Amino acid sequence: MTTAPPAPTRLARSGGKPRSRRYFHVGEGLGHAGSCVHGIALPALAVLQLDASPGQAALLASAATFPELVVGLPAGVLINRYPLRTVMITTDLASAAIVLAIPASVLLDALSLPLLYAIALIAGSLATLHKAAAMAAVPLLADEDQLHRSNAQFTGVITTAGIIGRTLGTVLIALTGPARTLVADAVSLVLSACCATRVKGLPAPAGAREVRRPMREEIHEGVEYTLNDPVLRPLVVALTATSVGSALTMTLLPYHLLTTLKTGATGLGVVMAAGSAGGLIGALIAPRLVRRFGSGPVLATGFGLHAVMQIPLLLAVPGPAWLIVLIFAACGQYATATVVGTTQRSVQQWHTPPELRTRVQQTARWLGTGTAPLAALATGALATLTTVRTVMALGILVLIVSAGALCRSPVRALTSRDEATGAAR
After folding, report:
1. Angstrom distances, CA of residue 379 to CA of 66, 313, 326, 383, 391
2. Helix, coil or strand: residue 320
3. Is 264 left (phi over 0), alpha (psi -120 to 50) or beta?
4. Fewer CB under 10 Å: which end of the chain, C or N?
5. Per-residue model confidence as pLDDT tens digits over 256-282
6. 60, 42 in Cβ contact below 8 A?
């Protein structure tokens, strides 16, 4: 067992904490907005300039998300060995350099799909490391009794940045083209790195000062703790099942809206915008809900409502009335998902020793986010064998079963008092 780093509360009280949090939020917001621009520009570049087929476009999307499955667990060890600020700055600057390779290749007439695949893989790997470091920094910049509020604020910043980034990306692509739009992504990453240089109170972890054990042993220790803890185990199982169920319902959502429900591109955009607004609402109300009802009831109710909010997709038929229902359902779905996401992340931090936090965090992300690309591929295969509605119904069933299982676990009994006691375990 490694030696625990200094307690987060002592770090937070070292001075300059609010100022550091502001720089941290601004930097992460800028970086995420740029990533959203990147997420729109890269497939647009592949389709519009390289005439990518649907299969090639899907492969490009998989290349961007596949690193979560491969790099996710090692990231929990790596960011425990090096200063978090150094990791954030390095990954930002490296990502900016990688992104600029795309407009440079256009100028040199060397753009190709294999190059985009490689850049998507590298950029995705760097993004996975950066996200891991940023999430690990949140509890170090917060007072222990404000941990959930800090997680919710961070989620709110990221959600808002996502809305701005997707809007900006759409406008820039229309005005300048996808290749030039990527310059904005690179600029945002450089600005994010500059903000990270002003963040204080992020010390080198204990692992950076010790004789390092093999990475496999450290990964195993994090996985073992997660799967043996009576609170973390059912929570992570529910998150993994929810990731799979959500992939079954959401992967084909644009196709279902456009082809079956005849919403048109405008209707699709409004539904997606409602989801983004719901995410922001969820980030704002999550701390209040936990203070009033406790972590356990919020998680149990949130998982259940998240499943129920997707049922209208099965019942909807073409028409403006159902489109309104789907808009409200999307808002509620993302609001509950955000409430669950911020609350479960805080519970993980409260119930994990400081020296294991990064590895437990990445174990949960690996089991959840890392399974999403595989679930998405399975969704396509199932849809060809059955129907889109059948696949969505299966996804909703998975969501309902996982929510029911969580209600019967020790997680249901957690109260808001665990915020003050969990981290001291």
Report:
1. 16, 16, 21, 6, 7
2. helix
3. left
4. N
5. 777 788 877 677 767 877 887 888 898
6. yes
> With 0-12 CB in 10 A as exposed, 13-18 as middle and 19+ as buried, what is 107?
exposed
Could you tell me the two tokens for 353?
């020793």
Residue identified by tokens 């949090």 is 21
CA distance linking residue 60 with residue 113, whole number of Å: 8
Tell me if 41 sits within 8 A of 111, measured CB to CB. no
In sequence order, what DSSP letters do the residues of 143-208 get, joined into one string?
A: -GGGHHHHHHHHHHHHHHHHHHHHHHHHHHHHHH-HHHHHHHHHHHHHHHHHHHTT----PPPGGG
- Residue 187, number of CB atoms within 10 A of its CB: 16
Angle at 345 between CA 340 and CA 347, to 5 degrees: 95
How many other CB atoms sit within 10 Å of the CB of residue 315?
10
Which residue in 60, 114, 69 sits closest to 243, CA to CA? 69
Cα–Cα nearest to 60, from 37, 42, 35: 42
Burial string for 260-293 (b: 16+ CB within 10 Å, else e) reads bbebeeebbebbbbbbbbbbbbbbbebbebbeee
Length, in residues, of the chain: 425
Q: What is the pLDDT of residues 128-182, one digit of tens each?
A: 999 988 888 888 887 766 777 888 888 888 888 888 887 787 788 778 888 888 8
Distance CA 376, CA 382 (A): 10
Cα–Cα distance, 152 to 287 (Å, whole number): 7
- How many C-beta atoms surround the C-beta of residue 110 within 10 A? 10
Give the pLDDT confidence score for residue 98 in this predicted structure: 93
Residue 376, both tokens: 């998405």
Structure tokens at 220: 């195993």
Nearest to 296 by CA among 406, 400, 148: 406
